[in-house]
TrEMBL record:
Signal sequence coordinates: 1-25
Coiled coil (residue ranges): none
Pfam family, one: Lectin_C
UniProt source species: Labrus bergylta
Keyword Acetylation found: no
Statement: the UniProt record of this protein carries the keyword Signal: yes
Ranges for domain C-type lectin: 32-127
Protein name: C-type lectin domain-containing protein
Annotated keywords: Signal
Length: 136
């Protein structure tokens, strides 16, 4: 029995010249570390979340440092191994230079897990490798 997860997702907007020049993020976007973020609390699968992000002109977030991951929610992030099993890639194809895996993750003994979520914990944020309904 597989438990399919529907999660909230975090969206980072693609950099727009005007946005970078003014440092302004319009509502409901949240400015952080030179980027504009959008937190959508509607539960979606990973592919649905990515489609919604792209519709809004952004994509699922790529995390490159401990400073980039500030959340206490359970959220989809842009890391996945959907293209090549056991080879993780960010949706923006940036280098995977930082990870914060939960102990025992990524559990790559099976090929049904493709998507990564971030889970807020009291003392730290950890990443979980999991399945998303409709992820293929």
């Amino acid at each position: 029995y597989l438990k399919f997860k529907l999660l909230h997702f975090l969206l980072i907007v693609i950099f727009l010249k005007a946005l970078l020049e003014t440092g302004f993020c319009s509502r409901p976007w949240i400015p952080y570390n030179g980027h504009c973020f959008y937190l959508n609390r509607t539960e979606k699968t990973w592919p649905e979340a990515q489609r919604d992000c792209r519709f809004r002109g952004g994509d699922l977030v790529s995390i490159h440092s401990v400073e980039d991951q500030t959340s206490t929610d359970e959220l989809w992030i842009g890391l996945n191994d959907r293209k090549t099993e056991k080879l993780f890639d960010w949706v923006d194809h940036s280098t995977v230079s930082f990870t914060s895996w939960e102990f025992g993750e990524p559990a790559v003994s099976t090929d049904i897990n493709d998507c990564v979520l971030i889970r807020g914990e009291v003392s730290s944020l950890i990443w979980i490798f999991t399945i998303s309904l409709g992820n293929r």
